[in-house]
Amino acid sequence: MHKNKFLILSIILVAIGFLFSGCTKKVAEKTTEKIIEKNVGSEANVDLNNDQLTIETEQGVYQAGEQVSLPDGFPDDVYVIDGNIVAAMAMTEEQGYSVSVVTNKSVSEVKSEYEEKLKAADWNINLRMDYGESATLSATKANRTVSVSATASSDGTTVTIVTGNNL
After folding, report:
1. Domains in the chain, number
2. In this structure, are residues 93 and 164 in contact, taking their beta carbons and an 8 Å threshold?
3. Is residue 63 part of a domain?
4. Which among 146, 145, 128 has a CA at the least distance from the CA of 137?
5. Residue 88: which pLDDT band, with cuts at 50, 70 and 90?
6. Would you say 99 and 85 are in contact if contact means Cβ atoms under 8 Å apart?
7. Cys staple from 89: which of 62, 80, 120, 134, with CB 3.0 to 4.6 Å?
8. pLDDT at position 8, please?
């Protein structure tokens, strides 16, 4: 899974680089699709539209941009903090999801809110870490895992939620 995440991140950076390098939208899309297809061994569909990036493969769907929504099938028992969703990914193989949200709440507020919401949804919190302007929580429920990390930045706090089967 880590290899897939690194690959997807690399591909996204390539697509964004093409977008801002002055390439036409179609050239950026087609070039990125070929790179993805070569590396994952299946068809890919890349769409760069209105400051939005969408990548679809057999492995899943990734979206990034200004108006991203939760992926279809995102679990109801995983809390998503109020804020602007800036990236979302549905991973078919792991039946997993990753969502990044920028919120105006502090890291400590995010951590407290997630501790409360996860416990209320019957998640068993098994890891709590604080390090400077960041915090991480990890919890399990049946055969599923959720990990929440919060990091302060100049734009607010970025909260990344990763959940799936035995991640």
Report:
1. 2
2. no
3. no
4. 128
5. confident
6. yes
7. 62
8. 52
Q: Give the pLDDT confidence of 6-17 residue by residue, as tens digits.
A: 445 555 555 555
3-state helix, strand, coil in the chain (%, to 5): 30, 40, 30
* Predicted TM-score of the model (pTM): 0.74
Question: Could you give the 3-state DSSP secondary structure of residue 89?
Answer: strand
32 and 103 both lie in a single domain:
no
Q: For residues 101 and 154, is the Cβ–Cβ distance under 8 A?
A: no
104-143, pLDDT tens digit by residue? 999 999 999 999 999 999 999 999 999 889 999 999 999 9
> Taking CA 49 as the corner, what is the angle to CA 45 and CA 55, rounded to the nearest 5 degrees?
25
Q: Domain end: 16, 36, 57, which one? A: 57
Phi, psi of 129 (to 5 degrees): -135, 135
Write out the E strands in the chain.
44-49, 52-57, 60-65, 84-91, 96-103, 124-131, 134-141, 144-153, 156-165
- Of 11, 35, 57, the position where a domain reaches its end is 57
